[in-house]
Design a protein that fits this description.
By secondary structure, this protein is mostly helical. 48% of the residues lie in helices and 0% in strands. The two termini are 27 Å apart.
Length: 315
């Protein structure tokens, strides 16, 4: 719930826009181990979106929270978790703990790089190259080492005060060895599997949801009413597609029946679209929210009226 509050303040979703409140609630959740909040703090402190006030920009804080997030995702590295506990804890206090005798390229990468660039393949931070997939590895070693030590593009922090040039060289060697060992996995093949072309069914599902469902369930899946499930929070998402379609068609509790207004194709595409709302919310604050349309069905809570057509414009 605390991450949700931060999300709402960040986007002015049902509340007044307030970045300080967003930062406060993200911190409350992140410090209790909420992975989504940890990623959102990383995005906030990396100023991943132009609208974020510059005062929140802090590369070390961003790296710290990205690192904790990446260490905690399912299948995350045990070495990462232990490294972050021993190395990255002081970063939140504006300090850097020296590596001491832990000078292997793997441990340096896990401790200082993986939080943004990823543990296994894709980067955790949208603007960071996926080094273990070979991105940026067309550069020569001296260029990569310079980027590590001196930072790059005001986004990647400089690590010269934290690691030595020899450690930076070991990191580059580790990255290159990892990339070679992956062999057949290419960036293009992974992008193709993740970023599929939007289909007509997906467009139909979003359009149908916006007009008929968003007025109660929220246009981004964060419900306006207590009795309406928030699909962004995965409420009701344990149900099968057929159960969701049945609720849409026949109605449920105070929810009206749509079988006389929606075709089977619309209902099928609607179910598919509803399942995209939770992943979109869990992706964090690196995307735009859907705006409230001018025309949609709107109902009063508790089913006081369920069949009126309302035109709603900017309030």
């Amino acid at each position: 719930m605390q991450n949700l509050l931060g999300f709402m303040y960040f986007y002015s979703e049902g509340v007044e826009l307030d970045y300080d409140q967003a930062h406060h609630w993200f911190h409350q959740a992140a410090e209790q181990g909420n992975l989504l909040a940890q990623r959102n703090l990383g995005l906030l402190h990396s100023k991943s979106r132009a609208k974020i006030p510059v005062g929140f920009y802090d590369p070390l804080e961003a790296n710290y929270w990205f690192s904790l997030y990446a260490a905690g995702v399912p299948g995350g590295s045990r070495l990462a978790s232990s490294s972050y506990q021993s190395f990255l804890g002081p970063v939140s206090e504006g300090q850097n703990m020296p590596l001491g005798n832990r000078e292997t390229g793997k441990e340096v990468y896990v401790t200082f790089c993986a939080g943004c660039h990823g543990f296994e393949d894709r980067a955790a931070f949208p603007n960071a190259p996926s080094l273990l997939l070979g991105e940026k590895l067309q550069q020569v070693d001296s260029e990569l080492i310079a980027s590590i030590l001196d930072g790059k593009n005001n986004i990647m922090p400089a690590w010269r005060e934290t690691i030595t040039e020899e450690q930076a060289r070991e990191v580059v060697l580790y990255i290159r060895n990892r990339f070679v060992s992956r062999q057949v996995r290419t960036v293009d093949s992974i992008d193709a599997s993740i970023h599929q072309t939007t289909t007509n069914a997906q467009d139909l599902g979003e359009m149908t949801y916006t007009r008929f469902c968003g007025g109660c369930h929220g246009f981004n899946g964060i419900s306006y009413y207590v009795n309406s499930p928030s699909f962004a929070l995965r409420e009701r998402m344990h149900k099968s597609d057929s159960q969701l379609a049945e609720s849409i068609s026949g109605g449920r509790g105070v929810m009206p029946s749509w079988e006389d207004m929606l075709s089977s194709a619309q209902i099928e595409s609607l179910v598919r679209f509803i399942r995209t709302l939770a992943p979109a919310y869990e992706a964090g604050i690196d995307h735009d929210l859907r705006i409230t349309p001018e025309l949609y069905f709107l109902f009063r809570p508790l089913g006081e009226t369920t069949d009126d057509w309302h035109v709603r414009r900017d309030q």
